[in-house]
Every structure is written in structure tokens, then in C-alpha cells.
């Protein structure tokens, strides 16, 4: 919709009453996800494609937002729902909840973005003490009717009325125990009828009211419950984890019921058009006979592979395969499909673009290009840097001596090692204490989300690739093994018994392999990922068939490199890191932190510089440091020959190069008590006291050091210039850039620049070599950003130091705040993500944008880059592309991520410009 002036979305100045809040499935399409949610939009799309979708209607996200804002449903909503319900009843030839032949409906959530299991669903609405009799008669099956009724009371009681779900589960387990059976399907009609009575008593006891018998009241209360579930704790936690905006609201889908629990010729299942774990084409999914949809994803009963449906019901199987092909070709992507078979008739309940593992995402993107369904630009939008980062994690060493104790379904890849825990509370508690844990459950449910986030990996003894654990883990990129049936999980006793009788107690180390489904005792060693070996040059695409993933990654990286405008440099301080960065695709060094060169064996020389009482002593210390610095730079220029190397002059406070004040005080006191010589320690202690600052990160550091410690910066500039001259004499191509840190005013930069220009001229004269050294500055203070136009008069480049800029804009001391209140800020939704992880576009980002604009207005050829950690963050890379920077710089292992995201940024911005 290019303009929403009709009744789709409320416009500014448009009354709520004039907005259309309800859409029949025949009215929408897949492009209306903002309004109809993903589920509703896709149900409408399948209806338009002529696929067998049960009739129904969708209540829009706009209605939800009005309800959440005001606490009341829109005044017009009830009448619109009544009109659509009446139309549905006429189409179906039966009324909601009528006694003799009742129409039953489901009420299901459906936000714009998939949030599996995080919000509420209620099935079988319309059943009551009277209509259950009619359903039994109409279906010719008493057991089915009473099973459906107990499901309604259980789901409605927990979801709508807030009854503790364990009470229903305990009653169900007691009924099975009394009957001496193990699965629900073995309970007979009489057993289920008794269970319904028990369930209704639970509702009465817990809620102080009877289970509602009016079907319209059931539906209205369920709709409100779905609206309310948008702000449920688990939904908010999931949105924070997945960075889904909190103001979208959810749509509500009211759909006529079809039943998979009518006997062996009925069932329900989930299908994928490709394997969501590997990306391979084939028949993937789970099917469960005589069951309703929630049974599959809940993992309560173990399913059979989808391929077995061909033997169970070939007609439905063949029809499903045709529909799956239709949907994949239509959506041009992996589709995740929910379906029900009612007495041999296939119904489609949902489709969506399916969640997939990182490896599957890369494989599927290249497969779809090869099949001609999408082009390279679209393929880049199907993968992301976070997925690539996952593929670079280590994997288990298969040659190591291991003790395998079980094997389940490889639901989400990765190599996870941790202590066994058996509930989410413990997983969170131990994780916050620094422990790595594996969450072990029979099956997970949405209430386990916080524990799943905290854990290194998830292991369940029930469920398949479409269970809650598998779907959520894949979405989070979390290692997961499901359906390890041979493992006996006892959550109450906090233990797991493995074949052979060995017991894994809470706290014991285990290892799980999400790529193979294997479960091991103890800690299994890991080896580098083949993707890292590819970037390191130790594995070549196409060399063997074992790693088609490497081929897929190689192709996607080639796509990205052809598309991207942003160049990618590395933060590297030595030749080893520089060479690794170059292998990973770095196009230069964007930040060389020279303070790292002053540590180790050179600390004594720095101490001598700080302790110098005379100009001669200071000159002697600087003279000793000069050749060491020069050697460092020669090695860097050699490693990055032909590529730019941005060298930041000394930045941190000098006291960081001195011993700790407490430790030094103790040493001095002990020496005095023992009457031992301690003249040097005493001088050091005096220097430490002299240089002590209350807030050193805002004190004597950066350019301020260069201005008050004579010769410090000029020594570094001389070392850079002499190293460049030496490399030129060796026929190298050094491209040095000198960066002045912590500049807040152009005058500081002008003074240091004048001194640097003089030193470079002296080296040129002494060596007879023409040097072209660019001089620029870091923009890491708000004042520098606000006066960027002035500073650009003396700078040939800006490099945004977004770590310090974030600290100074927010008034945060990173080392302190991340450990103190950031967790609370994230939990309360003040932050969607830490501003040190992803750039704060509104605050820090606006300064970057305005400084870039002002700098280029003064100096049109001004080179612009960023060298904070944000340079390797996927979302931040897109922002830097948008504001026109020339390059990003990040740690060597983040370079492939930045390259990929720079390509994606170019594609997505081109697409939005085109639109």
C-alpha cells in the first residue's frame, strides 16, 4: 500500500470509529503484514491462491493498539466482529456454539514478525455442556467431542483466566495413571468426560467463577486475552531478544475449526519446503495422527517424520507436496506450513517464511539463485552478519576421545558445552554467576524462554524439528538437540539417566552437538569452523563436497563484495593481526592503537619517560623508544603493503603504564619496614600520585598528552615517517595515516599538525624520500562532532571513535555501567540493545551524521570512517552506509561480517531508493 487513506490504518486526524478493524480472509494479502499480522496476511494469501483454508477473519493490529493504549476495545469492534461472525456462520451453515451442530472457532495471535509460542491461542471455542453433545452426535464420536472440550477448558483456563497450567497437567496425568495408560489418546470418552468435570472444578476454585457457557463470551474473552498477551512477560522478553519493536501490536485470527483428533484418518502436522537445519531440499516435517495442532509444537507426543504420511494417507500427502511446491515458488523462499487432515481432507492452517539455521540460510540463498527464483541482490537480503558470525564458531573435534550417551534430532547447529540444569530459573541464576549451562527439559514451552536465552544450548527428550524448543532455538541461533528419547529426564529430581544407567546430576558437564544431534558426557574439545578455515585460506571452495557450506558462504561473500560501497578495514596493532585481517578481506587498518606497543618489555622505558626530571632524561627515554616504534610500523606497513594504515598516536592516560597504586604502596611500605632500598619504587609512587585523576578517561590523555609531554607525539610521528621511508626504499608501498586522538577543538589539531608536518619534512630531507602521510583525527567527543566543520580545516580524515563518543554522549563509564544497571535497563525496555553494541542512532548517530555532513562541507574530499566496535555490528554498518561514511573498521574476526553487511546495506538502500 503506497498510501493508507482507506480503512486500512488510522490516519492522523481520522477518528477510530471510521477505521476498518476486521478483514475476511478473502480481503487481505501477504503484503498487509503491518495490518493483519504475518499469520492473517498469509492466510489471506493462501485463500487468494485457492488453497484449502478454513474460512475466517482477522482483527487488525490497529484494534490491538487502540486496546493497549486505552484499555478498552474500539467501540466499533464488537459490531464488526458480529458482522463477520454472521457471514462466517452463513458460509458454514451453522452457528457458533449451537447445541445440535455447533460451529467452533480458534482464536489465534499473529504479529507482523513470527513469535513462536510467545502469545496466546485458544482452540475449540464454542463448546459448552450443551454443544459438546451436539458435536459428539455430529461427529459420531463421543471421545473426540469430550477430548475437544477438555482441551478448550485447559487452554482457556490457562490463557484467558490465568489458571496455573500445572493444575490441569496434574489432573490429566492423574487420569492417565488411574487408567494405567501413558498417552492421552488411550483415554476413553468416559475418562475424558470425568476430566472435563475436574477441569471445570479447577476453574471454579481458582477463579471464583464457572467456566463460561456462552460461546460469544468465550470468543470475546479470548480476543482480549490475545491482545493482552502482546505485553506478556515472555512476549516482551522475546521481542527484546529478537529486537522486534514493542509498539506493533498483534492481530487476532478467528478461524473455523477443523479437527485432526477425529481418529486415525485425521491428524495434524508441520512441514518445511526445505530442511530448516541444513537447507537441503526434500520432505521435512512432523506429523501426528489423531491430534490437534498444539500437540505437535508442544512436543508432548513424539511425532513421525512427514515422509511417513505417504503410507498413512497418500492422497493428502500428494496434495500437500503440490501445495508446498506452490507456496515455495510463490514466496520464493523456504516456507513453514501448518496443516490439519480431517477425516482424509487436507486443510492449510498457516504458512510463513520459515526460520532456519545460519548454514541453511546461506545454502538456501544460493540454491534459489541457481533455480532462478531470486537474483543475487535478493539473495543478500536472505542472509545476515549474525548468521555468518554463528558459522564462525568452533565445532567439536570428532577425533577426540568422547563418551557419547545419546542422540536426538539435530535441531539447531553449534557445539555447546555447559553444566546440566533442569529449569529456567536455575539456568538464568547460574548464567548470571558466570557459569555456562545446558538447559535440559522433557520439552520446552514458552515459559522456558528466559532459560533458553541464558543457556549455551538446549536438550530435550521429546519433540522434533518443529517443536517449540527447535523453532525458538533456530530463531535465536542457539544450539539445540531435540527428541533424545533414550535419555530419561527427571526435572523434579534434577537429573537425567542415560543408557547404561549412568545418571547426570545437575551441575555435571555435558556437551551437545546441534549439527549431529549427539550428546556427550563431559567437555568435548572444539576445533575451528570450516568457514574460519576458508577465510584463513586453509580451505578452498569446491575442493571437496564435504563442505558445500563453504561454497555457499564464498558465493555470498563474492556477491556482497561486488555490491558494497563501504570499504572494510581492521583494528589491528601488530603484524600478526594485520596479516590475519588481510586474509579475512580487510582493505587496510582503520585503527592501530600504539599504546599496545608500549606494554611488556617496554614498560620500563615508559616508566623512565614518566619519571624523567630533566629534559635530557626525557629525550633519552624517547630516543630509546624511537627504534622500537619504528620497527613496529615497518612490520605493519609490510603486512598491509599497498593498503592504508591509520595509526592513532598515544591515547590513554600515562598512569595506565605505571603499577597499581595499592600494590605499589604495599611494596614501598614493606621495603621501608625492612629498611631495604626503595628509591625507584618511591619515585614511581610519587609519580602515580602526581598523575592520579578522579576520572582519567576525561583527563590528561590523547591530544592533551601530546601537548603537555614534549616530544612524545613527535617521537611517534618520526617513527612512522622513518618506517614509511624505509619501506619505500625496499620498494614497498606504505600508506600511513596519522590520527590525533581526543581532539575537542581545531586549535589542538593545528598545533600537533604543525609539529608533525615539521618532523615529516625533516625525515623527507634526511632520507631523500617523498612521503605522503595523511593527518586526521578521531571524532570521539561531542564538541568535536559539533564543531566538525572547523576541525575539518586541519584534518584530511575523520575516524569516528564511537566507543568513547557513546560514553561521552550518554555520560556512561562503560566498564562500570555494563556491570551495574545495564541489565535492568534492558529488562525494563529502556534499551532494546546496549548502545555499546549497536549505535544509538537518535543520539550518537545524529552527531555522526551531522559531523560527517559539516566536515564534507568544509573539505569535500574528507575521508570518513569509524573505528569503534560498532564498525563490526551488522545494524550499525547499515547506518554508516546510510550517512555516507567511506569505511568501517573492526576486529579481524568481524571483518567478514562487516563485508557481508556492507553489501546488504548497499542492496537494501538501493531497493528503498528505487521504491
Quick one: biggest sheet?
Answer: 8 strands, mixed
* SS element count, helices: 36
N→C terminal distance: 12 Å
Helix content: 40-55%
What is the strand arrangement across the widest sheet? 12-22-21-14-15-16-17-13
Compute the average pLDDT. Answer: 89
**What class do helices, strands and sheet pairing give?**
alpha/beta
Can you tell me the overall shape?
A: elongated
According to DSSP, the number of beta strands is 31
Q: Could you name the ranges where pLDDT drops below 50 across 5 or more consecutive residues?
A: 1-17
Strand content: 15-25%
Radius of gyration: 33 Å
Keywords: Pyruvate, Transferase
Protein name: Pyruvate,orthophosphate dikinase
EC number: 2.7.9.1
Organism: Streptomyces albogriseolus
What does this structure look like?
The chain is built from 36 helices and 31 strands. With 915 residues, it is α/β, with parallel strands linked by helices. Helix 21 packs parallel to helix 23 (615-639), helix 27 packs across helix 28 (746-767) and helix 35 crosses helix 36 (895-914). Helices cover 46% and strands 17% of the residues. The chain has an 8-stranded mixed β-sheet with strand order 12-22-21-14-15-16-17-13. A hairpin with a 4-residue loop joins strand 18 (488-490) and strand 19. It comes from Streptomyces albogriseolus. Its EC number is 2.7.9.1. Keywords: Pyruvate, Transferase. This is Pyruvate,orthophosphate dikinase.
